[in-house]
Amino acid sequence: MFHGYSVRRLIALLIVALLIMPLLPAAAQTTSLQAPVPAHYQALLDKAQTTGTLRVIVGVKLPKIFQPEGNLGSPQAVDEQRNAIYTAQQALLDSLKGFAVTVNARYIYIPFLALTVDEAALKAVTSSPLVTGVQEDIAVPPTLASSVPVIGADNVWDAGYNGAGWAVAVIDTGVQWDHPFLGGSGSSRVVSEACYSQCGGAVAM
Fold first, then answer.
1. What gap in Å lies between CA 57 and CA 165, rounded to an integer?
2. Interior CA angle at 151 toward 145 and 156, to 5°?
3. pLDDT (tens digit per residue) in 99-129
4. Is residue 131 part of a domain?
5. Which residue in 63, 69, 60, 54 sits closest to 92, CA to CA?
6. Which residues constitute the domain of residue 104?
7. 108 CB contacts (<8 Å, ≥6 apart)?
8. The whole model's pTM is what?
9. I need a surface site. Which of 15, 85, 119, 123 has the fewest CB within 10 A?
């Protein structure tokens, strides 16, 4: 049984607690909102601030773990994953309406988007729960130092095969016929080339 003094003291403590309790969640929330930005994202934000815009590759979150289509068991599973990718991409783009965002590529088979964004849009992207990761979209040209061993060409050369007496047809987006690797402009080993595209009419080269 409480004495009168103890009751008054308890009531006073309760009143003080009730007065300061509304302040505690706000303080905790402020602390969580000011969590440090990961260094990788901060570097991208700094660059976007300096350059005005930045090209980025953005991963989008799927409801299921992404799998290469060759690992999916049926055409139905392939269609379901493609639909999930499209839906996830669209959800992110819808959330970025009002920001300066340009879609450079919308991939069908992998859960990514290629975007150009300004600093404000990049902040929204890096903090979005719909995003799995962001990295700068930088062209990385292939190099012979890495590609030759990957295809095993060095082993073929060691076996004595160097391509002498053979002609090779390359069906590709194009080749720099005067590249020094192909003999240079004065003695290029490119015998002939042509454009077989039907876009705008085929043009012989």
1. 44
2. 95
3. 999 999 999 999 999 999 999 999 999 999 9
4. yes
5. 60
6. 39-136
7. 82, 85, 86
8. 0.57
9. 15
